[in-house]
Design goal:
The complex is a heterodimer of chains A (about 150) and B (about 90).
Chain A (H helix, E strand, L loop, with lengths): L1 E2 L5 E5 L4 H14 L5 H14 L9 E2 L13 E11 L9 E8 L4 H14 L2 H9 L3 H11 L1
Parallel strand pairs in A: 1-4, 2-4, 3-5
Antiparallel strand pairs in A: 4-5
Chain B lengths: L1 E7 L5 H16 L3 E7 H4 L6 E4 L1 H4 L8 E4 L6 H11 L3
Parallel strand pairs in B: 1-2, 1-3, 3-4
Helix pairs in contact in B: 1-4
The chains are: A alpha/beta (about 150), B alpha/beta (about 90).
Chain lengths: ~150, ~90
């Protein structure tokens, strides 16, 4: 189980559009060996097919696919976008914070989503994640949550 | 027992997050209900009293016999609490 460790977090990233932002969040997981390339393709396909419903709060997107699309380990990556990106959501656009979710069918998946929900239910944390400029700042937010 | 579905496109992540916060809100209000998360196509064939989902997916559930209502910010407990107060009769 991996949750926002340094190698799967990227701050101040430029993305051309929503698909590019999804690709970047997925690629952090792939480079760490947590998902396969097929999973990133499935994340983008889900966006094309089901739309931007995974922009589930103002400025926050949690792109994901199904475990069988190629997940090696339950995981959450984070990309903080330098400039807001439009995903096409009716109320929560534009997006600044992208959490790439490597969905598994294990108990760890539930644990990860609980951690993520606990983190993002606090709007002060959302503000800090948006304004952070280094990984150290993000690590401090996570340590406060424990 | 009241049955509530939280629904997203895949039934894997988004709907599970919503389920966690809806269960919390219902428990705080002392409303006992069974909350299940699933994808939109499974939900369309599932019996339920209430369905909670995003604006984006609510359109595809208008035919459902359950009362469908929308939450826009899944991390805003105040919005979730208000939506439950307005829509769920306890």
């Amino acid at each position: 189980m991996r949750f926002l460790e340094k190698d799967i977090v990227s701050v101040g990233v430029e993305a051309a559009d929503a698909e590019d932002a999804i690709e970047i969040a997925g690629d952090l997981l792939r480079q760490a060996g947590l998902v396969e390339k097929s999973y990133i393709e499935a994340m983008k396909f889900s966006y094309q097919k089901n739309g931007p419903y995974f922009v589930l709060a103002p400025s926050i997107a949690i792109p994901h696919a199904r475990p069988e699309d190629g997940v090696n380990e339950a995981s959450v990556s984070f990309v903080q976008l330098k400039e807001p990106v439009v995903f096409g959501h009716s109320s929560n656009d534009p997006v600044r914070l992208v959490f790439g979710l490597g969905a598994s069918s294990s108990e760890e998946h539930i644990t990860l989503l609980r951690k993520l929900t606990g983190l993002l239910n606090d709007s002060a944390n959302v503000e800090k994640l948006t304004s952070a400029t280094t990984y150290e700042e993000i690590k401090n937010i996570l340590e406060m949550e424990r | 027992m009241m049955k509530v579905l939280t629904v997203c496109g895949l039934g894997q992540g988004t709907s599970l997050i919503l389920k966690m916060n809806v269960e919390q809100a219902l428990a705080d209000k002392g409303i006992s209900a069974e909350v299940e998360h699933m994808d939109v196509s499974t939900a369309s064939t599932m019996q339920a009293d209430y369905i909670i989902t995003s604006n984006e997916l609510a359109e595809s559930l208008v035919e459902h016999s359950a009362k469908v209502f929308i939450v826009n910010n899944y991390f805003d407990m105040e919005e979730i609490n208000n939506a439950i107060d307005e829509n769920i009769e306890s």
